[in-house]
Amino acid sequence: MEKIKTLLEDEIKNSNGILKLKPAWVARNFIAPGRRLGLSESQYNLDDRGGICERWLASTTKADNKVSVPNEGLSSLKVEYEREITLKETVDLLSEIILGREYSKTHKGLRRLAKIFDYEDRIPFHIHQMQKHAKLVGRNSKDEAYYFPEGVDKGKHPETFFGVHPYIVKKKKFDLLLPHLIEWKDDGILQHAFAYNQNEGDGFHVPSGVTHGPGTALTIELQEDSDVFAMMQAKVGETFISKELLWKDVRDEDRQKYGEKIILEMIDWETCGDPEFYEKRHTPSILIKDTIQGSSKEYWIFYNTKKFSGKKIYVKKGEKFFTKDDGVYNILVWRGSGLFGGIEIQGGNPAKDELLVVHNRAFQGVEIINTGNEELEIIKFFGPDVNKYVPFIS
User: Fold this and answer.
1) What is the C-alpha to C-alpha distance for residues 316 and 296, in angstroms, rounded to an integer?
2) What's the total number of domains in the chain?
3) Which of 53, 74, 55 is nearest to 63 (CA)?
4) Where in the sequence is the domain holding 335, given as residue range(s)?
5) What percent of the chain has a predicted confidence (pLDDT) above 70?
6) DSSP, res 124
7) Same domain, yes or no, for 319 and 178?
8) 252 to each of 175, 227, 257, 262, how far by Cα in Å?
9) What is the DSSP code string of 346-362?
10) What is the side-by-side order of every strand in the sheet holding 343-346?
11) What pTM value is reported for the model?
């Protein structure tokens, strides 16, 4: 490991604190892929593993799939070595350098997961267990947030179901959902929730324990570093969902003792039935006025929580943008081409669209130059407590 550690230290020094990453593709077997991730047709289908439906970004989280593949979901560095070196290894070996000395004393790892998810049909109505329930099976909670990028086909169902109708909580009619879990035959559970459009340039913040069924718009997601969930919908379109996904992160003893009713205990009913759910969880882009440079601008897109945060930068054709942040982050180049701290970047090219910026370099700042013929759009992802100021919905 000392050899790898020395190699990585040299790489960070030579790159002035910016690491190039390889794309991490993740398969799912319950819904067909939407085929908008830029892969060839033959690359999407993986037999019993399902299809490539997600790309995880600067990930230190292992994908939790029934058909397990070594290092699936874990990002790797672009370095010359005899084997793949994962970002997780790098963070573990060089925690102070990657995270910063002070931050690494209180935070063990990046503690967030960024991804692009791309499904042909709606994702089944489900929850991510809250921490008190996730820890029972040795996992972490999974608060998450969505951003719907512009200029991409949104698929056949570009709306997301959230929560439950307020009267269900007000009158404590929680068992209305139970027959759908027991019978496990159709998509009738959706009748108990509201659906909201997935608008371009828009987003939502979704705490753990909230029932939701994301629509078909290509989605950039930022979340806690976990792959915990309980699927609650038996059928999506013409596809039947295995009921084993309802029990995926439930203890065997709880399943045997309580049956399907244990899932109702894992729901955050107060948040799900909040009459002001939309007003409190809808996260449109917020312009950061202090960083406007010429015609180029920066926006908050992931906020309303201290568990993670994120921004997007638009650099106009022919312009430069200097970006300075409080700590480590990773980027996805969504559109356009240019230079990021002197490194060539290009949106839509997985070989040139993903970087990690270590703490010191982030704090010193990075110059971005648009060298292309269109606007350069970059998305930045931060872990918990990196940004000193994050907007909250009042």
Assistant:
1) 5
2) 2
3) 74
4) 286-382
5) 100
6) P
7) no
8) 22, 19, 9, 11
9) ETT-TTSSEEEE-HHHH
10) 320-323, 366-370, 337-340, 343-346
11) 0.95
